[in-house]
Amino acid sequence: MTKVNVHTAKSQLSKLIEMAKAGEEVVIAKNGHPEVKLVPVEPEPTDWFGMDEGKGWIAPDFNELPDDMLEVMANPKIFPDED
Fold first, then answer.
1. CA-based end-to-end distance of the chain
2. What pairs with residue 5 in β-bridges?
3. Exposed, middle or buried: residue 29 (CB in 10 Å: 0-12, 13-18, 19+)?
4. Nearest CA among 83, 4, 76 for reference residue 36
5. What kind of architecture, by CATH, is found in domain 2-38?
6. Residue 5 φ/ψ, nearest 5 degrees
7. What's the farthest any 2 CA atoms get from each other in the chain?
8. What confidence tens digit (pLDDT) does each residue in 2-58 have?
9. Cα-based distances in Å from 54 to 3, 10, 50, 63
10. What is the pTM of this model?
């Protein structure tokens, strides 16, 4: 276990971070009393299935087509004046 004071931790932070990432326990003390412990962050596992759950929605009337749109699609007219 490595124990350093705040002043030393400020000046050697990069070195202490590397030590913590290597698995060594690093404790920062203030006035001789341990205050914090540096530990590496564990990578979060990527769970692809269901990661977008609840982010999207489909309108209840998604499959319903308004009558005017149905008419246009069923009987398309190239020119508006065409009968």
1. 89
2. 29
3. middle
4. 4
5. 3-Layer(aba) Sandwich (3.40)
6. -85, 170
7. 94
8. 999 999 999 999 999 999 999 999 999 999 999 999 999 988 877 778 888 888 889
9. 46, 43, 9, 20
10. 0.52
Q: Is the pLDDT of residue 82 over 70?
A: no
Amino acid, single-letter form, for residue 14: S
- Give exposure, 7-24, as e/b (b: 16+ Cβ within 10 Å): eebeeeeeebeebbeeee
User: Which stretches of the chain are assigned E, i.e. beta strand?
Assistant: 2-5, 26-30, 33-38
Q: What are phi and psi of 69, to 5 degrees?
A: -70, -35
Place of tokens 């070195």: 15
Structure tokens belonging to residue 74: 């069923």
Give the DSSP letter of residue 79.
S
